[in-house]
Amino acid sequence: MGNEKDEHCSFEPAEHAALSSVVEVLSSYGDIMPRHLCMSGERRQPLPSGDVIREIVEAMRSVFFPGYFGASEANAETVKFYIGTILDRVRRMLNDQVLRGICFNCDGERECHECRQKAADVTASFIAQLPEIKRMLTTDVRAAYEGDPAATSPDEAIFCYPGIRAVTSYRIAHAVYEHDVPIIPRIITEQAHSDTGIDIHPGARIGESFFIDHGTGVVIGETSIIGSNVQLYQGVTLGAKSFPLDENGNPVKGVDRHPVVEDDVIIYSGTTILGRVTIGKGSVIGGNVWITQDVAPGSRITQASAR
Fold it and tell me: Of the residues 168, 197, 226, which one is the last residue of a structural domain?
């Protein structure tokens, strides 16, 4: 017995050397070494946690739509205590994740106490914005119910529609994005993208009563501006026509390169709109249309008219 090897624990010398070699390679990040691994002492912060950020978003869904998500037993008598308890937990989790995001992109010029103060300020501002975010989401739910003949009630839109789920994540992410917090807003919207197939950049500006019907394959770029009472169907792209390059051939950041969609516009499935063009108020854009020029208010655009 004493001479037998533990097949689960022992390695031959050659195996050990091979494993060590693989570990050495996997431990090297090369040109993409995360900053947090290079920092020391007080400046070392862990990376944001995708799992915790997902937990924050799910908790916020139960705050905006109590009883629909989270504890289904929430009622008129308990809802205030329920929401207060969740928000206290969200506040602490969000503050920590925002701080991690700020430190993730820190250039070392700020003192650590400044980063902590910014995280606290962003969190407090986010909490203060929640009533307005809920108001906007209420208009989105109403638009989904009124815009889809198959919807039997607003409750069905809240429970079931991927568009409502994606827009909820977007509105949370956008509120954080406006405070110049790195990485966290993108994590929020890309998680929603994975869940729903709807890709909304947190930098887009979207008005109230926004409805994405069906939703799969919708793409809304960073500098898109969407007015109120706009409806998109599946497969719509609000994208960039081209990417201006700097003297080194790298894409120039921060350029307004995505469409402006004014109020009361409907864009049907499969349509692609590229560049900083304006779709005028009250226009209806038919399916599978390719647009790279401005569209006058009140227009009706079909494949034939686009050609």
Answer: 197
